[in-house]
Amino acid sequence: MKKLKIGWFSFTCCEDSTIIFIELMNEHFKDWEKLIEFKYFRTLKNNNYMTDLDVAFVEGAIANYKEEEIVKEIRKNCKKLVAVGNCACVGSPSNQRNSFDQETKQEIQFILDRFGHREKVSPVSEIVKVDDSIPGCPMSEQLFLEKLEQYFREFGVKNA
Ligand code: SF4
User: Fold this and answer.
1) Does the pTM of the predicted model rise above 0.70?
2) In the prediction, which pLDDT does 3 show?
3) 128, 72 contact by CB (below 8 A)
């Protein structure tokens, strides 16, 4: 039986949408294990593969150069990229340092330099094309379930 091949990725954020997804598994895992192949989900498993994904769910804002490279790699390896939660969709609240005053920015500059941080923290759409969004802080459970149903049908896992 065909399964939806998904990846779940977390960047700069508090990872509460990951927690929401895990909590939803209490109720839905029995169905989902028949319908979803969790190819990349580090909260769930050790062996993760980023290649050939149907849907990549991306949580969090992009704060450093390493994250920027990884999200570009994810984009190359998925058919649909979905920004999950406000940090991924619009950058906030993980982008607070973007609005620091000049003095504070100067004060933290050595940390940004040492850890390869970008000049500003960006929503995912400023780095790669985003196909769909599930906003909320954390993500809306209801919308996530609706979107998942939509992707099951779109990728032929369930009949349209
Ligand atoms: S959108 Fe809210 S819940 Fe999600 S990672 Fe950002 S701060 Fe956390």
Assistant:
1) yes
2) 98
3) yes
Rounded distance from Cα 12 to ligand 1 centre (Å) = 9
Amino acid at 9: F
**Residue 87 Cβ contacting ligand 1 at under 6 Å:** yes
Non-local CB neighbours of 101 within 8 Å, separated by 6+ positions = none
Query: Which string of b and e fits 71-96 if b means at least 16 CB within 10 Å?
Result: beebbebbebbbbbbbbbbbbeebbe
Ligand 1 center–CA 137 separation, angstroms:
5
> Whose Cα sits closest to atom 6 in ligand 1?
87
Task: Decide: 136 in ligand 1 pocket, CB within 6 A.
Answer: no
123 pocket-lining for ligand 1 (C-beta < 6 Å): no
Find the length of the chain: 160
pLDDT-derived band at 1 (thresholds 50, 70, 90) equals confident
Domains along the chain with CATH numbers: 4-154 (3.40.50.700)
Q: State the sign of the Cα–Cα–Cα–Cα dihedral 67, 14, 86, 21.
A: positive
